[in-house]
Amino acid sequence: MSSFIKKLLKLIGNHGSICGKLDKDNNVLYIINLYSTEIILYFCHRNKLTMSTTNESSSSKALPIFIALFILSLSLCGFLFYKYAKNKVKVQEQNEELTIAYQALDLKADSLQNELDIALAQLKLNINENLAQVHLKEDLRIQLEEKITALEAAHSRISRLIEKGNTGGNGGSKKLLEAKNEIAQLIEQNTTYISKIEEAQQKYQIEKKRAEQLSEKSEQLIEEQESLNSAKAILEEKLATASILDIAGLNITAVRTKKGKQEPTPKASKAERLKISFSVLGSELTKQEDKTIIIRITGPSGAVLTKDTRTLTNSDELYSLEENLTYDGTEKQLVYYYDQEADYKKGTYSFEIYERDVLLDRGSFSLR
Fold first, then answer.
1. Each residue of 335-354: b (16+ CB within 10 Å) or e?
2. Across the chain, which distance is largest between two alpha carbons, in Å?
3. Are the C-beta atoms of 155 and 80 separated by less than 8 Å?
4. CA angle 219, 222, 226 (to 5 degrees)
5. I need a labelling partner for 68 at 20 to 30 A (CA). Which of 24, 100, 248, 252 fits?
6. What is the side-by-side strand order in the sheet with 18-22?
7. What are φ and ψ of residue 200, in 5° steps?
8. What pLDDT tens digit does each residue of the chain (368 aa) get?
């Protein structure tokens, strides 16, 4: 910098900030004092200095340009100052609000830690009460057990945050405020979560009870069906039994004819035929149908007596008589006779009466 410019700056240095312009030969054309009470213009040309004030008239054509530049510079400085002042006020307001919030909360590490411990204890108590339910749904039990683990992890994390906030200062207060907010969120979120678990358990209980009722009703219907089937089987058995003839008073005696009248005889030598008599009892459950009665008489030797042969045989397929009757459910007295050409032997005879291979009755008699 030339000695001339140094002298110039020294001359105007006490007047505040300046702005200026150099020509192509690095000569100072003008310097404007921005903060002086008057506009002082310095003109320099070829190392010569001249000074003129605003109250002096000038014929220079550059004066309007200098004034315009001055006003523009002044406006720019004013705008920057306004922005700075506005931002400063905003920051101050935010700091004041934050200070008021800290003071209102009166955040202290000990009280926050105590609040956190109480919140954790209460949440775990609620969870354990639900876990104590005997019929708690298994997937809900797993979720609650996992939630306890998550709560303990959150407790450790917030405790570390409180510990960091206990260092004091503006940063510490922010940590405590953050911890306060996280405690509130922890309580709100987990209280809502536990409520949803309880609602799910209630729905499960209702559905389970409904299922149990349906199961009981199903079992009851099954029992009733089994009872009906049993009653049906009994009824069918009774009907089947009722369709089988029920007889009483079965008796077989040896008889002979004397003077035109029939009379019983105990002697084998005088026996002419065997008289079989019995009663068919009545039944209201039996409809009218045809019946076939089989009578088997076994002699003293164990052979079955038949009308077809004089030869005695032990075959179970042989029978002495086969008689048909129409039974309408009313009581009947029946009499049948067995005749054979061979003489009757002395000894004990046995007899059996069947219907459809069902033994109705049996007995015995003796001839001497």
1. ebebebeeebeeeebebbbb
2. 199
3. no
4. 140
5. 24
6. 18-22, 28-33, 40-45, 48-53
7. -65, -40
8. 445 444 444 544 444 444 444 444 444 444 444 434 333 444 444 344 444 444 444 445 667 777 888 788 888 877 787 877 778 777 777 766 666 555 545 567 788 889 999 999 999 999 999 999 888 889 999 999 999 999 999 999 999 988 888 776 667 778 888 889 999 999 999 999 999 999 999 999 999 889 989 988 888 899 899 999 988 888 777 666 666 788 888 899 999 988 888 899 999 989 999 999 999 888 776 677 888 889 999 999 888 888 755 454 556 678 888 888 888 878 888 999 998 888 899 999 999 999 878 888 999 999 98
| Every domain of the chain and the residues it spans | 3-76, 109-211, 247-367
Two structure tokens written together for 207: 């559905």
185, two tokens: 């969120």
> How much is the pTM?
0.40
How far apart CA 228 and CA 233 sit, in angstroms, is 8
CB 322 within 8 Å of CB 276: no
Which top CATH class is 247-367? mainly beta
**332 and 286 in contact (C-beta within 8 Å)?**
no
Identify whether the C-beta of residue 362 lies closer than 8 Å to the C-beta of residue 296. no
322 touches 293 (CB < 8 A)? yes
| CA–CA distance, 43 with 55 (Å, rounded to integer) | 16
For the four alpha carbons of 355, 358, 363 and 368, in that order, the dihedral sign comes to: positive
**How many residues are there in the chain?**
368
- Write down the residue that tokens 């940063």 correspond to: 171
**Can you tell me the distance from the alpha carbon of 151 to that of 146, in angstroms, rounded to the nearest whole number?**
9
Alpha helices for the chain (secondary structure H): 3-12, 63-105, 109-131, 138-165, 169-243
* Per-residue burial over 117-127, b = 16 or more CB atoms within 10 Å of its CB, e = otherwise: eebbeebbebb
